[in-house]
Specification:
about 200 residues, 5 helices, about 30% helix, disordered C terminus
């Protein structure tokens, strides 16, 4: 990657951050939604993508309408369908969501896998949010407790974000050493504090 330099005047001209979900999810970023099992991480993230795709507020926060892409590598496919249907019933939405669902075959650590994802699902589609659930399943063959592997994972997320312009959000279980992705992401969320963001 080539070295890029900027003047401070150029940086000031960028203005304030823009949001995919107002004050919650910044645009063109990489972050993590983490917490113990069964606290609702997957449904929280899926509801964010569904609300944004439908142009609806999410929990009272404005969304920027955009296409989404959900990579759900854990759980039953039937459960994912039920989650989407529950959200649609709650909001009275009958249109099919503009969110392709990928259930297998993706590894964030592989450039070839990222290239395939970009070519088949991101290029020219104006995708604004990418959910990857879970972080561990998206990096099979690597160790989420190893800092060097986590750095590579976040680099893969940044690669997707920079190429597509989307925000990439990983779902993550705490590891034996704590949430290893925490210090490597631009923002973090926990379902128990939905609406609260802790900058990294």
């Amino acid at each position: 990657m080539a070295i890029r330099s900027h003047t401070f005047a150029e940086l000031r001209a960028l203005g304030p951050p823009e949001w995919s979900i107002d004050s919650i999810i910044p645009q063109n970023a990489v972050g993590v939604l983490w917490g113990p099992s069964t606290v609702g991480k997957s449904f929280t993230l899926l509801s964010m993508l569904l609300s944004s795709a439908a142009g609806l507020d999410w929990c009272g926060f404005k969304t920027k309408r955009c296409r989404g892409l959900y990579i759900g590598l854990e759980g039953s496919l039937r459960d994912w369908g039920r989650r989407q249907q529950a959200w649609a019933t709650l909001h009275g939405v009958t249109d099919e969501p503009d969110i392709p669902f990928i259930s297998a075959g993706f590894n964030i650590m592989s450039k070839n896998s990222r290239d395939e994802l970009y070519r088949d699902h991101l290029e020219g589609r104006n995708v604004g949010l990418i959910g990857i659930d879970t972080l561990g399943q998206a990096m099979l063959g690597f160790d989420p407790n190893a800092p060097k592997d986590m750095i590579q994972l976040v680099g893969g997320g940044l690669d997707l974000s920079q190429r597509s312009g989307a925000t990439v959000i990983f779902v993550h279980h705490p590891t034996k050493n704590g949430p290893a992705a925490r210090s490597l992401s631009r923002f973090e969320l926990t379902p128990a504090r939905a609406g609260s963001v802790t900058p990294s």
